[in-house]
Amino acid sequence: MDGCVPRPLPHPPVARQIKDVIRQQAREFGVPPSRIALTGGAAQRSKTFVISKPADLPSWLREMKLNF
Known about the structure:
Elements: H1 15-29, E1 36-40, E2 48-51, H2 59-62
Antiparallel strand pairs: 1-2
């Protein structure tokens, strides 16, 4: 998937913690939580989130050499 960046989490999120992960990512990317969607891995250890129209890129992402 284009624009996909793996991001390790401190522990695998469970259903009730997904909202916390979404809120954290929303703060980092400068978007409202409604712009972040869980698109894969709801029942798996690895999760895939899509962030629509990020306003900002966090420093950890800017430091990566990515070609989108």
